[in-house]
Amino acid sequence: MLTARSIGEGGSESFMMDTTPDLTRIPSTELEKIQLQLDQEITQRKKREISRLRRDISNVATRLNIPLQPLIDAVIQKVAHEASTGDTSAKSTTSIFQNPHNPTQTWVGRGRPPRWYTKLIDQGYTPDQLKCTPAITEH
């Protein structure tokens, strides 16, 4: 039987295995049961973590008086872009420039500039004026 001991401070529950189990001695049917239990536990923990993160994001947005929907839309747009391109690198999705009239329009500063960027430059905006500013700042 596997044993685990609790480690951590301040009531946090972390566990560390005392010994590495010899899986070769456990029957396949038992391993499958353990795997199912592990999968279920991992799924439940992920759901709890997502709920906690949603609550935390909502609390921060409320505290900073930031509408929550634009934050959600930005995340959805980023995830959709990553899914369509298969590119999840921060370099390719980190925007450098943003349209001040429509914050959902951004550009990473590589390749051909979008029409909104060129139009604003033609109207007298400087690249520094179009640089993204962090959406959430803490003082």
How would you describe what is shown here?
With 139 residues, this protein is of the alpha+beta class. Helix content is 47%, strand content 12%. The chain has four helices and four strands; from the N terminus they run E-E-H-H-H-E-E-H. The strands form two sheets. A two-stranded antiparallel ribbon has the order 1-2. Strand 1 (4-7) and strand 2 form a beta hairpin. The protein is elongated. The chain starts with a strand and ends in a 17-residue tail after the last helix. Residues 6-12 have low confidence and may be disordered.
Topology record:
Elements: E1 4-7, E2 14-17, H1 28-63, H2 68-85, H3 90-93, E3 97-99, E4 102-107, H4 115-122
Looking at the structure, what is the overall shape?
elongated
Task: Give the count of helical stretches.
Answer: 4
Strand order, main sheet: write it out.
1-2
Helix content: 40-55%
Head-to-tail CA distance between termini: 52 Å
Which strand-content bin applies to the residues? 5-15%
**Rg calc:** 24 Å
Q: Structural class of the secondary structure composition?
A: alpha+beta
Mean pLDDT: 78
Following the backbone from N to C, one meets helices and strands in this order, namely EEHHHEEH
- Counting DSSP E segments of at least 2 residues, the number of strands comes to 4
